[in-house]
Amino acid sequence: MTAAMLAFDEALDRLLAAAQPVAEREEVATLACGRRVLALDVVSAIDVPPRDVSMMDGYALRCADIAAPGTTLPASQRIPAGSVGAPLAPG
Length: 91
Prior knowledge:
Layout: H1 8-18
């Protein structure tokens, strides 16, 4: 016999009804806190990193340089993490 699936709202209600708040807190060294959950939000006093960054690797190109499908362009810059690239030149 297969059990019927619960509707999302009913499943959420059941989970929330069974959840118990944890009142205990302890301070633990950073290197010993694996597999734990923070009791409070942690907010940095400084921007890290100090500029806008991409969250993934990729390529940038100028649409004006793509004259037709199959156009090949050279890679003109390699910009390692923490570095700022130069403006993209034509071609």
